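Can't paste images in this forum, so I'm doing it all in text. The chain is below; anyone willing to post the predicted structure tokens underneath?
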Amino acid sequence: MVPPNPPLLLYHMSLSLLLLLFLLVSKQASSASNAISLNQSLSGKQKLVSEGSNFVLGFFQPGNSSYYYIGIWYNKISQLTPVWVANRDAPITEPTTAELKICSDGNLVLLDQSNSRVWSTDANITSNNTVAVLLDAGNFVLKDASNPNKTLWQSFDHQTDTWLPGGKLGVNKFTGQIQHLTSWKSLDDPSPGIYSLGIDPNGSSQYFTVWNNSVNYWSSGIWNGEIFTAVPEMMSHYLYSFQYVSSDTERYFTYTVQSSDIITRFVMGISGQIQQLTWVENSQEWILLWSQPKQQCQAFALCGPYGSCNENAYPFCTCIKGFREQSPADWALGDRTRGCVRKTKLQCGKNNSSRQKKDRFFTMSNMRFPDNMQTFQVGCASKCELACLNNCSCNAYSFSGRACSLWYGDLLNLQEMYTGPSGGTLFLRLSASEFRSPRKEKRVVIIEIACSIIGTSALLAIIYLLIWTRKRKGMMGIPESAEGGLIAFRYNDLRRMSNNFSEKLGEGGFGSVFKGVMQDSKVIAIKKLERYSQGEKQFRSEVSTIGIVQHSNLVRLHGFCSEGNNRLLVYEYMPNGSLNTQLFHNNPNNVLNWKRRYQIALGIARGLTYLHDHCRDCIIHCDVKPENVLLDASFAPKLADFGLAKLLGRDASRVLTTMRGTIGYLAPEWISGSAITAKADVYSYGMMLFEIISGRRNFEQTDDQKPRFFPTLAARKLVDGDVTGILDQRLEGDAKLEEVIRACKVAVWCIQDDENCRPTMGQVVQILEEVLEVNMPPIPQALQMFDENLGTVVFSELSLNRSSEVKETSSTSATGSLL
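Text version of the structure:
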């Protein structure tokens, strides 16, 4: 027997002891990692992690700020995204000497480096035996340690700018405590901003977004038992459950998600919009599902005093003529509450020499008028101007008919390129020095005339030289082209052709569209791309791809413009506008007949088939909806915006991309964050096909203020054999019954929950052309969620069959075979 080696034995015993100590310490640390008890504290880089590791609580620095805050953020996503901030208006400079702890009265407190209290839960607690726990829902709760079921304080009752699933927005009638959201001041400053969202303090069920605690600029509408009346989009959020509660003790609204895999948040943004965002793991970014108000410029006083908002530009806010940003640093961080200040003070009221020039007025056309106007009747425009000029507090005036409107004090809520009812020409008061003097103007005019003569002569010489050169080369009359035959337009030329983009035709997912006229009287449609972040090389590459895509059911691209930050596309003009305007109007004398509707549905399907199957690369449109279907002079449909969709190479079956499109037409795989295929377009097509059949929006309110989800109604009537109840009532039954049935079946097949159960667009074309027979589809589970009656119906598996051949399938499965 070999005797033991004492040094080696001692080494192994020491190692075992160290391992045991390590395991004990690790176990103790992990068991306490989500809570702070009495005599414990959190400082420096220490953190609390919720039990399921969903959320983290600790010190953090927002953006480029030099200050630290105690906050809660997501633990499982790559971007630091705070959802709650404790000391949002009392930051600290040194977290290593600061402490978050339970104090002697049982409250949770934050002490700074000088041991001064900067934040506390301030709960009415009778026991000091408390514990603070970070829960997996993102809620930070202070509990009675001897009674864990007793919550003394929770962060969900003191939300900052973010509303998480399970949290409440409302009011406690017993305590008077209000749960509301308040925006951050800027991207780097979580202190309370100027925008907030809360329940109506007067007792109704509606919610308001509020500016500066004084102006309500958006309302959710009242709760009708299922949704808020001004938010019909809620009907399409079938992955979420909503609940409004009104009892003797409280009124509140809350929501939950159907799947724990969905990471979502509801935010009161610094730009005055409320936004619902969902994290897409594949693309590693937050995507916007929904926002209100829908137009950014509808957020009250977004650009501050003397700032002007423009929906067709990015950034949205600029200072009007004669003004500059009061704090450029704040503007860069999104905080424009201080707005703009005058470059030159007004001369009004100054007791200078008689040679002092008077203030003058600058003309601003197509402006939304500022708030707080004072209107009276005058005989002419000159008297209105004089009334403003004689009052040193008057900063602008407007005259229409005999009505003179004056504005005193700061000008708020200005908007350019505005065509709404409360707008027109505004005359802005500026110092005379902002304008050229007559003597200077005379000298400038003389110089400009001389320069013009010289320039014209030089230009004529150049033109003559170019013509002579082109004649020699035999190129006379052939226009210059670029990028595969597309015309490269200059920005100034497009601005001239569109009369400074004055006639707006509509808006798409990527920008606004304006009418233009070329020199040969050819009418064109000019799309200004908004927030297009790619460089010129990539833009030209994508444009060249669009240019080679030619099909009778796709809008043709004539050219483009790429100058500086300006990115524009020039398309053929479609005189009958969008399918959206043709379908959803109340003119009984101008209703699309069924024959045209059916041909439109077929034409759209052919266009999508070409994009999916017949291009060099599979092009997924990503935003199929009536607004993106344009109609030519003979009402032939043409898909627009297809060229800016995500390109999918032939060697790949899926594409990982940021979610885009429109709520109500989005396939479930978009919202769940899964990778998407061309079947996402199929789903959107099916939702649009329901609207083509019915002539009404899928989501709308009925006369009794109850929400109506048409696909559910259509599915039920299709099963019951009552397809005439699905058809647009304005058609008065004037349609081919077989075509209506076929179109309804196609629509339900297209919106199946499982993308593998949806047909391809090529199959849709064959069905509508009557090459393929189509049988009754199974009702998607998402539709059944909207109607309890559908939940009791058993649907056998049916299939699409070529001619009369029926492929046998199992009736116990709900997936279905398409061919």
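The CA atoms of residues 596 and 635 lie 7 Å apart. DSSP finds 14 helices and 48 strands in the chain.
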